[in-house]
Amino acid sequence: MLLRVSFGGVQKYIKMPELTFGDFLREVSLKFNISEDRRLDLKVYDQSNTEVDSEVFEELIKEFHGPFLVSLANEAPCNPHFTSSPGSTASDETVILNFSQLEPAEDPVAAQGSQPKRPCRINYEARALIEKILTTKPGGDRIMEEYAKTKSITDSTRRRLINILTAEMTETHGTSPPRSVKVMYAQGIIALFPYLEDPYSQNGFEHYYDPESGSGYIAWRLKTIQRKASEERGPAVRSPKVGGPGHGRTTPLTDKVLTDEEVESAIAVLRHSADEETIREKMKTTFSYRQAMVNDHDKSAEVFSVFPRFLDTQGLVEQDFRLMFGEQTANKFLERWPTTFKARVIKESHGLVPSTDLLDLMHNAETSTEVENGWDSDMSAIILLLHLLPPSAQGRKRPGKISASNAVDHLIKFQKTGTSLQQHLDNITQSRQPYILAQGPTKSSIHSFFIAIDKHALPCQATTSVGALDELFKAHFVFGTSYSPALNNFFTFLQTAIYNIDVGKTKETPRIAELRARMVR
Questions:
Q1: DSSP H or E stretch at residue 43
Q2: Smallest Cα–Cα separation from 216: which of 204, 226, 230, 228?
Q3: Partner of 246 for a Cys bridge, out of 22, 431, 443, 482, CB 3.0 to 4.6 A?
């Protein structure tokens, strides 16, 4: 039997040859280098925090497969899913055991090890505070009941939760409570509701309140409450978030640095060669030079005139992206979207306010056959994610907030077979961020995909909607192009939750972190 073990914030598997209490303690000690003289100090507890000893261990695991919790003597168990008293303390030297055999249907996201490991620490005082507020305020009991049944909360319930907590906060601490209070409330939320924690953020609660940037659902609600106040607070000192494309990146080191003459020679070969293998080789050798162009504001517009093979050779965007981030990152979307994220996006979309367009998308996403009207199953699910992460308002001086339905036009455009591709490009009135141009007899039957960028059409190597979106995302990084404002939330979610690029370095809304917390569990 394989057992999952967490000790000091590090998770490992141990293999149990025998299901005896002594063997169990010995294997844990060996795996985590616990000295033999401390082995006798290990204590085992079940989910109700009842101590388990050698007399009941073998019998208990026949019916109860965990999680079990082990800690050193005189230290309180630490597990957000265990019931503990508010006054207890946790230690980094805590072992959490999950007696579960690996099954083929194990969560692919967890199996890939994409969730960062964080030492198990619970703020019991904060947890007790939130629990007291919700059990004494009207509507709080319904929030706790919903979480108990679903291990999650809907958007409307989350808004109700924030309203209740900020009302109590402002009543006790005024409309401008200190940062420590906001942090405690945020800590208390994920301590009481551990499945709402975001495993990709530093502390797990930043989508409720981020003390570094001053953002989050609690901060947003407080700002709404403060709007009627006559005195405005000064701006907080914030660390800039500059992750994602369009900010310039350090070019990965290559085996050989080319001289100017070697670069010019390679570019000359690229212009005239008809051999695809030669084209790919010369594009690879000029990668560093090309990235320097992309990150130079004065030269970035010339990339397609200097390297026109992007316009007639498939797979070059993919090749550059792999040189930037490596094979593992490049493969993540095609591995994770079909097996995990597509189904979870469809499930989450059932909580949205229904409309005719949304119901059609949900129907098309859930069908395995070709539909008469609308996009195919994969593209419909992708657009559902856009509805889950709609565009943010752009401010009074800008066009303002657009709907998710209108934002689709910034993601993909359909062109019926036989229509002039060049005419479509000529009709683009202004330079804009890249988008997918799909050609076919109907939206559900696409024959070819292109990435439209700077009035050019780059042929996609992909023949599916999922592959085309993968290439579109990668084109942003390869050409140093920022996300369209209408798609910023959408692409930032893909970047952090699926590709795991610049996690913690990219500015993101609480909605992104909240949805990520739901989907990576």
A1: strand 42-45
A2: 204
A3: 482
Q: Which residue has the higher pLDDT, 372 or 66?
A: 372
Structure tokens, 470: 């993968």
Q: Calculate helix-pair angle for 510-519, 342-349, nearest 10 degrees.
A: 120
- Lookup result for tokens 């409720």: 208
Least Cα distance to 358 among 390, 322, 384 occurs for 384
420 backbone φψ class: left, alpha, beta (φ>0; ψ -120 to 50): beta
Give pLDDT tens digits for 68-101.
Answer: 565 655 444 444 444 333 333 333 333 444 433 3
Give the global pTM: 0.66
Using alpha carbons, select from 459, 502, 497, 505 the residue that is nearest to residue 477: 502
Beta partners for residue 355, in sequence order: none
More confident residue, 439 or 427: 439
* Kind of pairing between the strands at 10-15 and 412-416: unpaired
What proportion of the chain, given as a percentage, has pLDDT over 90? 47
Integer Cα distance of 504 and 243 in angstroms: 8
User: CA–CA separation, 95 vs 42, rounded Å?
Assistant: 9
Residue type, 280: R
Omega of the bond prior to 245 within 30 degrees of 0, cis? no
Amino acid letter, 179? R
pLDDT of residue 385: 96
Count other Cβ atoms within 10 Å, centred on residue 450.
Answer: 25
**Measured on CA atoms in the order 116, 117, 123, 124, is the torsion positive or negative?**
positive
Residue 338 burial (C-beta neighbours within 10 Å; 0-12, 13-18, 19+): middle
> What does the pLDDT look like over 234-248, one tens digit per residue?
444 444 566 788 766
Element at 278 (helix H, strand E):
helix 276-285
Average pLDDT over residues 41-63: 66
Spatial distance between the Cα atoms of 6 and 163, rounded to a whole number of angstroms? 36
Report the alpha-carbon distance of residue 45 to residue 164 in Å, rounded. Answer: 35
Residues 493 and 430: their CA atoms lie apart, in Å, by 27
Q: Are strands 448-453 and 456-459 parallel, antiparallel or unpaired?
A: antiparallel
User: What's the CA angle centered on 176, arms 173 and 181, to 5 degrees?
Assistant: 55
